[in-house]
Structure formats: C-alpha cells, structure tokens
Design brief:
Layout (H helix, E strand, L loop, with lengths): L12 H9 L4 H18 L8 H17 L10 H22 L4 H4 L19 H21 L2 H12 L4 H7 L4 H21 L4 H8 L2
Helix pairs in contact: 2-3, 2-4, 3-4, 6-9, 6-10, 7-9
C-alpha cells in the first residue's frame, strides 16, 4: 500500500481547510498524506536509514499535527507548502530522537569520564598559544561542571551544549518539559559564569581562545 501512487486533485487553500474540517474529510486526508509522503521522500532522499514504512509513519504523525493546527495556518503560502514544512520538522525531530535512542544521559555525563567534553571543541588549526588557552578553559569548564552544578544541571548542560542532544529529547529523558529545562540550563549557566569569574576568567578570555 505504501508504494501505491495516489494522484490528488488540486485544491485552493480554503478548500483544503474546509475539507479537512468537514465531515467527509477522508479523501482530503488521503490526498494530503500522499503529498506528504512524496515530499518527505524527496527531502530525505540522502538518508539511507529511512525506508518507505518510515516515511509513512512520519507522514501520519505530521497529519495529526497539521489537522490539530489548522487554525494556525495564516495563508501566507500554499497550504501544501505549509503542511510539508511541518512534515519535514516532524521527520527531522524523530530522526534526531532515534539517533540518541540508545545513548543514556548517564553515559554522556558520567562524572568519572574526564572526556565528557568533546575534544572537537578544541581547534586544531589554532596556534600553540591559543590551543593552550583553549585547553585551559575547557579543563576549567570541566571542573566547574563537576564541582559547581547539581547532577540534573550537569546532565542537562552536558547533553544539550556539549553533546548536541535535542532539547526535546533531553526533556523527555529527564522527565520534564521544555520550559523547565530552559530554567535548569539558565541556572546552570549562571553558576558556571560565576565560577569562571572566580577563576579569574572573563568573557573576553573565552572569545580570544575560541574566536576567529
């Protein structure tokens, strides 16, 4: 079924809205789903980890969001363009979540692992003096993260800023929501900034070490 080609009829923006809200919306849903699958197939063509069944799953999840958010469509583009953007965002979010699925927060924030700050943060093209400053700053940052932050602050800071885990995934793993995670990260940054000042390091030092 997923490989069948469905030809959808042309609709205006208003027709899409009316039909998706109407009692007999099955045809419009099926047409929109087919459009989303085709668009996702093109957008994710370079991904070897995405098969047809996965595209169908992404399209189905996107459909739910699109139908739930019809009132937010402002008509500034074609309805199908707006819907495709939602579908691509859904797909990329799910792919990022899948990437981190088998990696635990404890593993990437283990305080016994002195390399939880990626070495890629150091610039190999920098001169010897700048590399030394980078190394000093990163070692100081590592120590402050271990000594000054609570366990939850350390988990959030390391996962989001140092390992690049998506905010939504970190919030889900930590059993919290996006707003609470923002607050946690803000408090952690405040503590780290105070710690850097206490170590005699300024914002200018950081810019000199990691700036162009």
């Amino acid at each position: 079924m997923g490989n069948e080609v469905r030809t959808s009829r042309e609709r205006t923006n208003q027709q899409w809205l009316d039909e998706l809200r109407g009692p007999g919306r099955d045809e419009a849903l099926a047409d929109l789903r087919a459009i989303l699958v085709r668009g996702l197939r093109y957008a994710l063509a370079s991904r070897s980890d995405v098969d047809e069944a996965t595209l169908e799953d992404f399209a189905q999840e996107a459909l739910l969001k699109i139908v739930a958010g019809l009132d937010s469509f402002r008509g500034e583009s074609r309805f199908t363009t707006w819907a495709q953007k939602i579908a691509v965002r859904v797909a990329l979010t799910e792919l990022r979540r899948h990437h981190w699925r088998d990696i635990s927060l404890d593993k990437i924030t283990n305080s016994s692992d002195i390399h939880f700050i990626p070495r890629t943060l150091e610039d190999p093209s920098a001169g010897p003096e700048q590399q030394t400053m980078q190394h000093t700053l990163l070692e100081t940052l590592r120590r402050l993260i271990l000594e000054q932050l609570t366990n939850r602050q350390r988990q959030a800071t390391t996962a989001v800023y140092l390992q690049g885990m998506p905010l939504e995934e970190v919030a889900r793993r930590m059993g919290t929501n996006r707003n609470a995670l923002y607050k946690l990260l803000h408090d952690a940054r405040q503590r780290l900034q105070k710690g850097m000042v206490a170590e005699g390091l300024s914002r200018q030092d950081v810019l000199q070490a990691f700036g162009p």
